[in-house]
Design goal:
Layout: H1 2-18, E1 24-26, E2 36-41, H2 46-55, E3 59-69, E4 73-83, E5 89-95, E6 102-115, E7 120-126, E8 129-135, E9 143-148, E10 153-156, E11 161-169, H3 187-190, E12 194-204, H4 205-214
Antiparallel strand pairs: 1-6, 2-3, 2-10, 3-6, 4-5, 4-12, 6-7, 7-8, 9-11, 11-12
Amino acid sequence: MNRFIIMIGVMLLLAACTSEGKSEAEEGTGQDKSSSLVIKPAELTEREESLVTQMGVDYKTFYTVSGKLGKGDVVVSSILVYEANEEPKEKIVSISRTGDAKEFDGGLHSFQVLLEEKETYLTLGNPNGYARGTTTMPKDLRGYRFDSFEEDVTVTKGTPLYLSYLIGTSQNQLTGGGFVDQTVLPESVKEAEYALVFKVEIREESELYKDKEEE
């Protein structure tokens, strides 16, 4: 648990360092604009690399976000759990702030996994803070495979992107893996004994409330 608390503290410090000279400012034009964001693997400075090393997380993805959101649209980041023969379940959801069209100017974001004996800690970080939660992995998992996107990608409204995933197996080896298209989750992930999937999408805020009412 102490390791997790340290991880959160360092993560916030890292976000503060990266926010120097970078911001996600609201643009109050009152006009609707199409939503499109460019997501890039983060190129960390030497200082940031040092902070990441001190975090002690097992698996992580750092990335930057640039572009604009139209009025009424929000960025939804989520971590999904896939288990054999079961429907995927959302473990953590992080939603951007509401308001008029917003501009993302290269702020640092992250997806992190910390494996502990009793629980697995999950974190979604952004320049404004973080969302965190826990999950319990099957005890018989013996090996893991982690894959994350390596090239710039563009997320548009209505088309989710899968940026990273962690597969666990009780067998001696893992086969397959790797991304071909960020909009398509590999079958090896869907069919895995256990998998954590990091997804980013742009949606209308009104749709989120509608989905919640229908649950």
